[in-house]
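Encode chain A's predicted structure.
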Amino acid sequence: MSGKRVGITDVASAAGVSITTVSHALSGQGKVSDRTRQRVVDVAAELGYAPNRLASGLRSKRTGVIGLVSDEVATTPFAGRIVLGAQEAASDRGWLIVVVNSGNDRLIEQRQIDTLLAQQVDAIVYATMYHRPSTVPAALRSIPTVLVNTRDEGFDTCWVVPDSFNIGKDATSHLIDHGHERIAHLTIEQPGLGRDGRVAGYRAAMEEHGLAPIIVSTTEGATAVGGREAAEQLFDRHPDVTAVFCFNDQMAMGLYQTAAKHGVQVPDDLSVVGVDNLELVAGALLPGLTTIALPHYEMGRWAIDQVERVLEHEDPPPVVHERYRCELVERDSVARLRR
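Encoded structure for chain A:
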């Protein structure tokens, strides 16, 4: 091997096209037929060609690199799909995503942001593991920034969050549609955008049908332990409940465990709906858990769409706010009420 770096001229020669065509084919820009684009991509891969981002950045005044700053998104099995969605959307555009994870340490987060800005990233996607408000670091006001799973009332920028109200309403309505009237909601004690939205949606669905809300909270957090603790309260205070909407899948798992201890069978005696569609839980429980899937992947892609929209306009385009309606994933934990 000569060790010589493969250049765009080599790719153009091997593919039998012009340098401009190679540039357009690999960047996704310009008018290039799908057949030609694929041939150029295949030749570039065969030759081991990697575009010189520094050179192209000097020409376009962009680096083609987007920073994704998160608290714990990159280390969680479900919210990590935000990263996947952003990466795939960026790859479609020939961009690179650099992911940093602060572990909720503000000093680490600030150092990470300073480093990304020093590398002249084109934009920042700022994401949180769960739906909550944020105080976005002041340094991000100097660069195009899109928020995912969070919002900052003091920062007028694009953000996307799950529609927590309709999560609660859709989950509860699904149980009502199956004939249930004594429906409880197991939730967490700590207020928050996700928790409060789901409670409000649950209440709205119950009140629309003239049903009395039954809300049981736990101080143990949104975990299986919290689900078990709340379920013990539920079976003690409201033994006639026939269906439960849980704050998340992990709490639903705790409810399953407590129900088994009390000889209550899901779904024959008790129908259950969770939130998250956490495959390690919802898909593994017996019976499989009907749940509301959070749109993490879709929110990640949406963020990159907004980054592109901002970067393509010399003047700042209108700020966009999006609340994603979430999908009900039906498994076997809900049965029609037997009178």
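The radius of gyration is 25 Å.
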